[in-house]
Amino acid sequence: PSFIYRPIVRSFQxxxxxxxxxxxxxxxxxxxxxxxxxxVTRTLCSRVSSFSPFLFAPTATSARTTPLRVxxxxxxxASLSASTPTxxxxxxxxxxTHSGNFHCDEALxxxxxxxxxxxxxxxxxxxRDPKVLATKDILVDVGAVYDPAIHRYxxxxxxxxxxxxxxHKTKLSSAGLIYKHFGRxxxxxxxxxxxxxxxxxxxxxxxxDVFIESVDAVDNGIERFDSPTPAKYTECTTLGARVGRxxxxxxxxxxxxxxxxxxxxxMTGKEFNEILxxxxxxxxxxxxxxEEALANAFGxxxxxxxxxxxxxxxxxxxDLEKEQGIVGRTKYCLYGDASGWxxxxxAIAPGSFQSxxxxxxxxxxVRDEELSKLTxxxxxxxxxxxxxxxxxxxYEGALEMxxxxxxxxxxx
Length: 412
Description:
By secondary structure, the chain is of the alpha/beta class. The protein is built from twelve helices and 18 strands.
């Protein structure tokens, strides 16, 4: 058995001090032969991530082509809350961050620290009093000092220009700073893999690219695009926006700042775990499938690839093309699904809605027999109105559509 607790959170506001403690909850868990192992699919990831702790057992220490196995069990007194508790340590480390309005970056940074061997079970204190901050073992997002040697991790000072590595230009927030120095340990611990596991460095890097960097950018006010064009719609469901809504409202008559911050740590931690699970169990195993498809590229100029089975392929294709010096070569990816075969145009960059070579304009928005007559290809199902994807009942039909699409402009 292990004793799990939620950390003490203090908030200093002027001369008033609010201290809240949580009674330890007893959670029983063990890695034992009686447990049934399950392969967690992408649809299960978000549900599994609501339960703590995670017990991961890798299938091998070499590169995987199959998902990791997740072993988990809860005793009769287990907590099934969505919060992510931490293991109590014998001596508590003191973690300091600022009081007042909190943001996504320091909430996530504090959560990550609580997952480390050094700071698990730590006591978090929120204050701006320099004398109090000076007594802390580590400071996050406060103090105007960045010095890993003395565990000071602030990014607000004018002299601060730190990035994750030479490949990234985004200035770090407190989340990025803590992840840079402690993230590898956190990923290894949550996934329960060995330090020399080949997936560790890949997933550690991937988690920064797909999750942490966006937290850094938002906190530092960095736009996603260089264009000054006003946004066409409002987005209010991002992680940062949801964390922001946990702050006390200006109309609250009895604001409870510490409670909101605790919820923010739980929310950001849950998000971190969900995305980490997806990368480890779904994204990483797909690399070998895409690598094989790219090695067997075909068609005019090797611009077509065929997946042996559907998987998350876009990011891997982008990475592998860069590694092999063939960026932009692949135009269409063919893969099967329950209803037939798909031909999908490769985006100009991961996450972009703009394709390298969209399916021909006359085909877009047309379906079934009408599309077959228009293309001269039997078995056509549809082409999306934006031209980024189309379908055919057979592989041969999808291949013929892809081949004609490659040469469409040449024949005009």
